[in-house]
Write a structure and sequence with these properties.
alpha/beta; Rossmann fold; globular; 7-stranded mixed beta sheet; 2 domains
């Protein structure tokens, strides 16, 4: 019942309308957000600096907007320029016995969350998760003194962690919905917050970067094939991400006949979730596959997605990160 209600409310957000009854709560929430921000600006709440500069990749809306693929692209772009990045994250969807938790490709998503494990797997960068991003960043610097910069996956609103640059991501299609703060709309912070970020990035068709899918990898044996090899076949597609329809559309664009099975974001899969009464292939996002990698089902395939940056956005991003790969920056860190 609660999930259905949440879905109806979110549908209103992105239909550019809102429930009038929620607007007083949105005003109250907005006042609390303003007070919290002022408390940090005036030193009532303390901001903590860590031993390395921090680049935050986040958003001002709830739900998925494509942050994690951009984090992966940013870490890879820095590495190509000789800058070693480490990543910190809250580890949403995971629960560890103790924090901070160091994450690598073999860490259980149930402990670290699916996105940190995906980042560690795709980039090879050191990753640390903790609800307290300052503690995560301090642990990262202590364990990996050779890193040059920290990339924070999400955390735009985690003001306690000082940062040198902020990138705000939005979904190009859904934008900022009806423009209202929670719970009347999807905004964590007012739109005016965007005036203080260093770079805004729109994800999706016509935006600053898009996700492309070209291949598939079978989970049980790591066999690989071109996504086009599934063309004209009927496949099951599952996606527990912020916008499952985007994944289904990408598969359809490659000529696949898709039977779509959207799941809640960060869904924890069981084998029963992937039984559909036939032996057709089951294609899923990498984020979903991270949580299914121990399943011995030859029907399961992961579909990696890569962020492709527009020339204009790539130039603006390079301008933002340029100070972090200057020799003087490394010498004086």
């Amino acid at each position: 019942m609660w999930q259905a209600l949440a879905q109806r409310i979110q549908a209103r957000w992105y239909a550019r309308s809102a429930y009038m009854a929620l607007m007083p709560l949105a005003c109250l929430y907005g006042a609390l957000v303003w007070l919290r921000r002022k408390a940090y600006e005036n030193g009532v709440f303390k901001t903590r600096r860590v031993a390395r500069p921090v680049i935050v990749v986040g958003n001002i809306t709830v739900g998925g907007s494509g942050k994690t693929p951009l984090v992966i692209a940013l870490v890879t772009r820095l590495a190509a320029r000789g800058v070693r990045a480490g990543v910190v994250s809250r580890g949403y969807g995971g629960r560890a016995a103790t924090y901070p938790l160091a994450v690598d490709a073999n860490t259980a998503p149930a402990q670290a969350g699916d996105e940190p494990v995906l980042i560690a797997t795709r980039t090879g960068a050191p990753v640390v998760v903790a609800p307290d991003r300052v503690a995560a960043a301090q642990a990262l610097c202590a364990a990996h003194p050779d890193i040059d910069v920290i990339v924070a996956d999400d955390g735009l609103q985690h003001y306690r962690l000082a940062r040198q640059a902020e990138i705000a991501v939005r979904d190009a299609a859904r934008g900022y919905g009806n423009g209202w703060l929670l719970p009347a709309g999807p905004l964590r912070e007012p739109l005016a917050r965007l005036a203080r970020v260093d770079l805004e990035a729109a994800h999706g068709a016509g935006g600053d970067y898009q996700l492309t899918v070209r291949a598939a990898r079978r989970l049980v044996d790591d066999a690989r094939c071109a996504l086009d090899d599934f063309a004209c076949q009927t496949v099951h597609a599952v996606a527990g991400i912020g916008d499952p329809a985007r994944f289904f559309a990408a598969l359809t664009a490659h000529g696949l006949d898709v039977k779509a099975h959207p799941m809640p974001d960060h869904h924890r899969y069981t084998p029963a979730d992937l039984v559909f009464g036939d032996d057709r292939p089951v294609l899923m996002t990498e984020k979903d596959a991270i949580k299914c990698r121990d399943m011995t089902d030859s029907r399961l395939w992961a579909v990696p997605a890569d962020a492709v940056l527009s020339d204009d956005f790539a130039a603006r991003l390079d301008g933002l990160i340029a100070p972090f790969f200057e020799p003087t920056h490394k010498e004086n860190r």
